[in-house]
Design brief:
Strand content: over 45%
CATH superfamily: Nucleoplasmin core domain
Oligomer: single chain
CATH topology: Jelly Rolls
Mean pLDDT: 82
Number of helices: 0
Largest sheet: 4 strands, antiparallel
CATH architecture: Sandwich
Distance between the termini: 35 Å
Length: about 130
């Protein structure tokens, strides 16, 4: 599932939550943080607010964007565990965050190896062809 949200002077935070009752593992991955139309040339600091191993709230800055020098930051699918809040700690935005949400159902997760899979069953990958010029 794709995720997208925008932080602005009027909407300074966005919280991503999942249903605690469902028996699944959730991973939220942040791909890109970027300034969008209407952003001023000021520092825009985006923080991720979550909980540490002692269940205490912690805030970590993940991006400091400025229109004239760094309007976009690729976070290479920075993985987070929901619930998590994205907060515009400084600046007025608008800052757009994009990423994806993966749900892994625990009842389907089996760590046992299948006996009927052998190395002979592996598919051959086609050779890599040079790009046409």
């Amino acid at each position: 599932l794709l995720l997208g949200c925008e932080l602005t002077a009027s909407t300074k935070s966005y919280t991503f939550q999942v249903d605690e009752e469902d028996d699944s593992d959730h991973i939220l991955a942040l791909s890109v943080v970027c300034l969008t139309d209407g952003a001023k040339d000021e520092c825009n600091v985006v923080e991720v607010v979550g909980r540490n191993h002692e269940n205490q709230e912690i805030a970590v800055p993940v991006a400091n964007l400025k229109l004239s020098c760094q309007p976009l930051l690729s976070l290479d699918n920075f993985k987070l565990q929901p619930p998590v809040t994205f907060r515009l700690a400084a600046g007025s935005g608008p800052v757009h965050l994009a990423g994806w949400h993966r749900i892994m159902h625990r009842e389907n997760a089996s760590f046992e190896e299948d006996d009927d899979l052998s190395e002979d069953d592996e598919e051959e990958l086609p050779p890599i062809m040079p790009a046409k010029k």
